[in-house]
Write a structure and sequence with these properties.
This protein is an all-beta fold. The protein has strands spanning 2-6, 9-11, 17-24, 33-38, 44-51, 56-59, 67-72, 77-82, 91-97, 100-101, 105-109.
Length: 111
Amino acid sequence: VQLVESGGGLVQPGGSLRLSCAASGFTFSSSDMSWVRQAPGKGLEWVSSFVSGISSTYYAESVKGRFTISRDTAKKTVYLQMNSLKPEDTAVYYCYWNAYWGQGTQVTVSS
């Protein structure tokens, strides 16, 4: 199993980023995928999930209305579109599946 995140970076408040997570080694099309983040000095925080069986999406209250999770089954990739970013969104963002984690991608929101 491999989960490889990309797309992080430095962005100003109010800006946007799209994170990608390329998956391999398991049946992506039938798998539930999640994004989890860890802010500096804090614990892990669940951000969003895509539930495959019912094609439903779920979001933490802190990101609802600003972030959108989606997937491309042909590319075996899950995305996290992040809009209206705030300084408190600064964190390392991880892709997660079935106890497997990616290496993370840093998102920094700062002016």
